[in-house]
Specification:
By secondary structure, the chain is α+β, with helices and mostly antiparallel strands. Helix content is 45%, strand content 14%. It has two domains: 3-117, Jelly Rolls (Sandwich), CATH 2.60.120.1140; 122-315, Four Helix Bundle (Hemerythrin (Met), subunit A). α3 (122-154) runs antiparallel to α4 and α6 packs antiparallel against α7 (260-275). 31% of the residues are buried.
């Protein structure tokens, strides 16, 4: 439906999308890559806007409850919070230059009828969360480094650095990951994947005490770290946290099993908990292992839409242990 300017007796043929839900109002046009001069976003209810996450400037109209323009802003830059206007009930957002081209002015009376409801895509949300998630992981990794160094200096033991090496490798490959061809749109996949990584970053070594489990713990951790390094080298920039298709990998350890990274981590964490058997570590590792199995199954569910992955599944039939599972 067009936006009708009853004051100037004009109509503007915009495709009007209404943002009425909490998330659609919060996100707005943020995360979109380019403006659409034929569309307008009507945010209602709304008393104030932000432009964080925007890639381009906007023209903005503040409307009262009758549809009267009480404030008109041109060329609002990204990453700003324009001043609040009293009596604002809704806001219309356009691509920059629209107000000048259409000669829309303050005090004009507008009738707005939405064509569709705005539903922010998960891809937009993932773009907005990209750097906040990276920052969170980097902060958790920094705390892990500090804890590992403290334990390493006070109680020298090479096993204390196993969890540091493991998570450093994960962080490096995570931050340099390749852009995905498609990504899971399920909220649970995102939540489980991020929480699993956070749980792994919260694991901590304990004071080293010689015990019958010291040698088995060391062997399992070394085997696990070795498997992780080989699996990561096979994956390269195809590594990710959330289930996604970043190019099907069939080389290296992936010739033997579908999820060598996860089984290597299971081996490593088993060794870690043997050498660091605190209640906190046990709970965290159970959460991590549960999350890893979820991620493996979710990845397969997503990648099955790719013919090359279906062919890969036919040739590599086992997920974790050759000949067993």
């Amino acid at each position: 439906m067009p936006v009708i300017n009853t004051t100037q007796k004009k109509q503007y043929p915009f495709q009007v999308h209404q943002a009425g839900t909490f998330f659609s109002r919060l996100i707005g046009l943020a995360g979109s890559s380019r403006p659409d001069p034929e569309s307008a976003l009507w945010i209602k209810p709304c008393t104030r806007i932000h432009t964080f996450g925007m890639a381009y400037p906007l023209d903005v109209l503040y409307l009262d409850e009758t549809g009267k323009v009480i404030r008109a802003l041109s060329n609002v830059k990204p990453n700003t919070i324009p001043a609040k206007s009293t009596r604002t009930v809704s806001v219309l957002e356009f691509s920059s230059g629209t107000l000048n081209d259409q000669n829309i002015r303050e005090a004009d009376q507008l009738d707005v009828v939405p064509d569709t409801l705005s539903r922010p895509r998960l891809s937009v949300l993932s773009n907005l969360l990209h750097w906040p998630v990276n920052l969170l992981i980097a902060l958790l990794w920094s705390r892990l480094v500090a804890a590992a160094l403290q334990y390493g200096i006070t109680f020298p033991n090479p096993m204390h650095f196993g969890i540091l090496i493991h998570n450093t490798l994960l962080m490096v490959f995570f931050l340099t990951r390749r852009k995905s061809l498609c990504t899971s749109s399920r909220f649970t996949d995102w939540a489980v994947s991020i929480l699993t990584l956070c749980a792994a970053m919260l694991l901590r070594p304990v004071v080293f005490v010689e015990s019958p489990m010291t040698l088995p713990s060391a062997v399992l951790q070394y085997v696990g770290i070795g498997g992780i390094i080989i699996a990561l080298l096979s994956l390269g920039r195809s590594f990710g946290i959330v289930p996604a298709n970043r190019k099907v990998v069939c080389s290296g350890m992936y010739r033997l099993i579908r999820h060598p990274m996860y089984i290597s981590e299971i081996i490593f964490y088993s060794g870690f908990v043997l050498g660091n058997p605190t209640l906190k570590n046990v709970v965290l590792i159970v959460l991590v292992l549960t999350g890893q199995i979820w991620r493996a199954l979710s990845e397969e569910n997503l990648l099955c839409s790719d013919p090359s992955y279906r062919a890969y599944m036919e040739s590599v039939r086992f997920r974790f242990i050759p000949g067993v599972f």
